[in-house]
Amino acid sequence: MMNKNIQSSLDEKKVIELNQYSGVLRKVAWAIEFVVVFIGLCISVFLVLNSGTQTSAFILAAPFVMISIVELAKIPFVVGLWHARKSFPLYLVMITLLCTLTFETLLNGFERAFSSINEGINIKEIEISRLESNIEANLNSIDVIAADYKNESNKYDLEEADINDTYQQAYTSAVEDNKVKSKSIPVLLSSLNIAKQELIDLKVEKANLLLELAQKKEEKFKDSIQRLDNSDNAVSDERKRLLSELQTLKIAKEQAINDANFFTRGSVKIEYDKKIRYTNDQLNNINNRTLTGDKPDEQFESVKFLDNYYSDLLSIKDDLIAQKSAAVASLNSQYVTASKASYRQLESLKSKLLANRNAQLDSVDAEREELDNEFKNQKLTINSLLKENNQLHFDIRRTEIETNSLALSNQIYRMASYIDNVDNYKEIKKNSLTLVGLIWFGSLAFIGSITGVALTLSGLHLKSLADKIALKREQATQLAQADTAQVASNSGNTSVS
């Protein structure tokens, strides 16, 4: 009887608890249905009113709200599974589906959270691309400005070249026209050159006559000198012979006188004196003829004849040279006069052409100077663009550092960087990133999906053990109370007896 009372009290508690879980399940079911209907209505309204990012964000976030409410029904389902008998497989399938749904939802949520990190990185990379585009645009602007200046400068260079070519062509044409108009100048020049050549020829002929005269006179003088040299040599030889003979006679005289006796000495001396006197007379005759130059002067007469003959020829040549010099002077005067007239006309035309060319070049120089002044202002623009590019390069570097810090602040990127042993997120391999994300997010999603079920089952198991212990204690207490009452009843019956 007591066991039945205890069991009934425990069953009453379980009924109350199960009714509470049943109410929770019905409330959750109504909440889920309400949320689903509300989400559908809101999606319809947003699609009608706005199809932008807010609608997309709401559509993406709505399933997570619904799944979060469904999560509240997981524990009552586990309680139902614990107390189920006939419907145990159905509850098991439903709880498995709920765990799978929770796993998929958590994994999807982690992936979306990770996508938000990637979106932030993409935004930074888009900012870097924008800065690089600005740099490229600035460089293009600089190139356009430089190209415009170069094109304009080249245009002025071409204009200057055209002006110089036009001047050169006009001057060449003027020179040709001047040559046609001054036809007498070449004739005069030709006549002048012929006259000069004839004058030179006359002077050459005169020089040849003088040379011929000098050569003939030299030949005459050489012949005369040679004859004189030959005569002098014969006289010298004779003088030497006579001197030698005279010396021999003197020696022979002394020897003969020494050898003669007293009687013959006088006659020997007289004989030798005669010989010595005769030899001295011959020697004196040779000396007198040499000193007085007793020679004919026919060669000198021949030289005088040559001088007179060539003097007449040279006089004729001098007259011809004088006449030709006068002709050359006359032709030269005529040529100079004609040339000066033609030269003045050509110089006048050349001055006009130069003035026109210089005026055009001055105009081009003025335009070029205006272009240079304008380009000075554009240089300021170029410098400003270069400074802006420097700042943009700095911003790019700063953004790259911020992007790398943002990426590596995420545990997925950080662990993947450890695996690949790199410091920059761009160097991380996609396979490493995918593997780390799958392991990390899968582990978290798996733990989140089964933890509630496991804890609930553990709690129900512990509660079942506690109920059994409480039942045993209650039974023991009731037995003790029954024994006490039995003892008291037996004692009262004994006393009455």
Proportion of residues in β-strands: under 5%
> What is the arithmetic mean of pLDDT?
71
Low-confidence stretches: 289-298
Please report the number of helical segments.
Answer: 9
**Total DSSP E strands:** 0
Radius of gyration: 75 Å
Order of helices and strands: HHHHHHHHH
Shape: elongated
Computed structural class: mainly alpha
What percentage of residues falls in helices of 4 or more residues? over 70%
Query: How far is the N terminus from the C terminus?
Result: 30 Å
Major sheet characteristics: none
Give your account of this protein's structure:
The protein has 497 residues and is mainly alpha-helical. Among the domains are: 15-72; 180-357. The protein is built from nine helices and no strands. α3 (74-83) packs across α9 and α4 runs antiparallel to α7 (298-408). It is elongated.
Core attributes:
transmembrane helix, transmembrane, coiled coil, 497 residues, mainly alpha, elongated
Give the helices and strands, then pairings.
Layout (H helix, E strand, L loop, with lengths): L1 H48 L3 H19 L2 H10 L4 H94 L2 H76 L5 H28 L5 H111 L2 H10 L9 H67 L1
Helix pairs in contact: 1-2, 1-3, 1-9, 2-4, 3-4, 3-9, 4-7, 4-9, 5-6, 5-7, 8-9
Keywords: Coiled coil, Membrane, Transmembrane, Transmembrane helix
Summarize the structure.
With 497 residues, the chain is mostly helical.
